[in-house]
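Let's practice the habit of predicting before peeking. Look at the sequence and jot down your guess about where helices and strands might fall. Then scroll down.
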Amino acid sequence: MSIPSVFKKPWFWFFIILLALAAGLFYWQRQKKAREALETYQVSRKDLQKTVTASGKITAEREVTLRFQTTGRLEWVGVKKGDRVKKWQAIASINQVELEKSLKKELLDYMNERWDFDETMDVTYKDQALTETIRIAKEKAQFDLDRVVLDVEIANIAKKYAVLVAPIDGIVTEATDEQPGVNVSLLNTQYKIVDPDSLRFTAEVEELDIGLVQEGQSATINLDAFPDETIKSRVGPIDFTATETVGGSTAYNIHFPLNHSINFHRLDMNGDVEIVIETEDNVLSIPIEAVVVKEDGKEVTVLEDDQQMTKQITTGLETDDYYEIAEGLNENEVVVIPE
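Done guessing? Here is the structure:
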């Protein structure tokens, strides 16, 4: 069988070699583009922190709302909103003329009842048939006397409550009536006092995260009013009872102490807090999105010599963004981030 003459031509073999080179170049470029299209991450060491974040606002541990216990005309007001007050300082009072007259009337009723009581107690009979009647009359006299004594005490208390007194040091944050002469409302007339040295940050932590939080853990607070300022704090008291969030889920209030030497803290300032749950320093880590979780464990795709292979891994600490690698990978290995 004779060889076709075309195979004997030099230009034919030159064309074949050129075609092979072109095919190899095409394949290399295609592989290069495929490699460049892959999102990868080189296993490295990091300091990891597992945190819980929550939103909240500045509240006060010590605050009181003072209201009158009886109606009347506002006679005197000694404070206005924003004033500082001392403990046991008088705040306001209502007109006491009517209360004094009421007390005097109750005292007169008491004296009259006392005379009746003494007369009843002095009555004695030798006739056995009247003994039970006298006993009942004496008991009734005692009940009547006790009743008027209570009326006197109530009237005296009402007179004492005619003056509102601050039970704590603080700042008046609410004074509904600052001018005397108006009629006092039991529901609407009030004076609120807040102790600025008791300010704290209170955040709502979701029910799913509350089990991770313990008193004493370090925390960082950022207030919306001062985005460039960070406040170092710690986890303080955790409420025993739950509260319902705006979204309808269950949460628990956690209180964080503030540095009271800082004067820019104001009641009801909004912000966020980050609580450090656990830390691991200088550990191998990879992004969470590089890990595929399966029923038999976790695995990653590793890139070696342009070839992809899967490896089983064991993870440790998990943060919002990274897994700690306990077993299965070495430093500087390249893992593929799945699309």
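How did you do? The chain has a mean pLDDT of 82.
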